[in-house]
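INPUT
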Amino acid sequence: EVQLVESGGGLVQPGGSLRLSCAASGFTFSSYWMSWVRQAPGKGLEWVANIKQDGSEKYYVDSVKGRFTISRDNAKNSLYLQMNSLRAEDTAVYYCARLALVGATHFDYWGQGTLVTVSS
Amino acid sequence: SYELTQPPSVSVSPGQTARITCSGDALPKQYAYWYQQKPGQAPVLVIYKDSERPSGIPERFSGSSSGTTVTLTISGVQAEDEADYYCQSADSSGTYLYVFGTGTKVTVL
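OUTPUT
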């Protein structure tokens, strides 16, 4: 059974940093593109970042470029999101999601999410 | 930036048919995908490649495409189908960039 379990969320002040983690199990982690998707309270889904199987390619939504860094450790079956210079508008539930094996065109499995609140 | 537009809400009586549209200029060239999200839960994929249904998704969920609009149809709606639904496609500016629709709240009367 595919499982994605996020951790690391919490309350942080504007300008602060936070590192999210996602522990993957039930599939060959190193074979898949992986992604972070967020959802602000009461709002829709927003893709944030994704990373290729070997970490050689990374892509970000414009609003987080230069502030967030996605990474992975295939030996630990783990995905990460380092978030720096956090803003109030980064407040959201952050989901770890697996991208489809063929073409990485869509998100076929999601974690339950971890809440990040940016507030003073 | 590229946008996918959905109606904010759709209301339907049990047993009737709900249709949710998603419009985007690049949809004639890109597949669309649909997710169901119930309150407090993670999204679940219900349709991929415009009209394919993942294993475990009930047959009452179907998808179609015509020009710049894709449609998710729920036939014989059940109370458990009440949820938010989001379409998703590749961003028109490049591969490995993604965009979600604005979301539609389906209410079962």
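end of record. Chain A touches chain B at residues 33, 35, 44-47, 50, 57, 59, 61-62, 95, 100, 104-108, 110-113 (CB under 8 Å).
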